[in-house]
Amino acid sequence: MLQHWELGQALRQRYSSFLNTSYHRQEIYVRSTDFDRTLMSAEANLAGLFPPSEVQRFSANISWQPIPVHTVPVTEDRLLKFPLGPCPRYEQLQNETRQTPEYQNKSIQNAQFLDMVANETGLTNLTLETIWNVYDTLFCEQTHGLLLPPWASPQTVQRLSHLKDFSFLFLFGIHEQVQKARLQGGVLLAQILKNLTQMATTSQFPKLLVYSAHDTTLVALQMALNVYNGKQAPYASCHIFELYREDNGNFSVEMYFRNDSKKAPWPLILPGCPHRCPLQDFLRLTESVIPKDWQKECQLASDTADTEVIVALAVCGSILFLLIVLLLTVLFRMQAQPPGYHHVADREDHA
């Protein structure tokens, strides 16, 4: 929480001449994933960003004011919780990724190491895709000053860190990175570009839009932008998009990444563009990773529904056909039987 409060203070300092000194609801919009930790992170950040003025303090003993943080249920979140799903096409790409030489070699190289970690932790079915859970636990314990178990030597923790970095690459890269981006980080990027475009065309849009989410959210976005450094982001990291109006009336975008509280945010450069990238060039250069119709590209909903309807109609049609054939057979046999004819059983029938 302290790190996010300090991030809020850093943002206050960076945008002191851009934002009002006091909180105004029309000036900022905040959205978080529906997890306690991300909601709390957003609130801590806002406490540092907007310390209450005297008139906004509801108690002399509390230097804090409530600021709304919006969210949606996890099952409905199609913007910030990654990887997005269900998405059959993405799962197909992941299965293809598992067959690549890079993934296969990494699995072979770390097979014994994964077995060792499984034995020490009691976890079963540890893979390159699930080992991040072990590293996350050790990282949290280490960050909060807790003593790590004897098997978790510095060398082991470092190797786990490398494997977690690889798990991020597996999720959003290695194989068909652009296609994965269209189904994952490109969804968030599309919303951010829409925000920037609206900010450039209307003065009614909030000055500051904030998203509070997860490390996978950050990686998905940066992989879509092709600016990811391949390393796990530390707590309270922040990817910044800044929109500038030039003297000629056109707009430009600058990106920064704050991953070290002791240093100024690092400039991020979109491949193919200078650091201050004209907005129209930014839109053009990222067009390939923006989905046109996410559900259609995921092979979801309509395709699945159409298939189910076709199957249902085929089954019903087959049943109806059989009933008609049966009915015609019965009618034919009734007409073929002479009137008044009765079958008389003889002895051979009972032999």
From TrEMBL:
Its EC number is 3.1.3.2. It is a single-pass membrane protein. PROSITE patterns: HIS_ACID_PHOSPHAT_2. Gene3D superfamilies: Phosphoglycerate mutase-like (3.40.50.1240). It catalyses: a phosphate monoester + H2O = an alcohol + phosphate. Its main location: other. It is found in: Lysosome lumen; Lysosome membrane. The chain crosses the membrane at residues 309-332. PANTHER family: ACID PHOSPHATASE-RELATED, LYSOSOMAL ACID PHOSPHATASE. Belongs to the histidine acid phosphatase family. This is Lysosomal acid phosphatase. It comes from Mesocricetus auratus (Golden hamster).
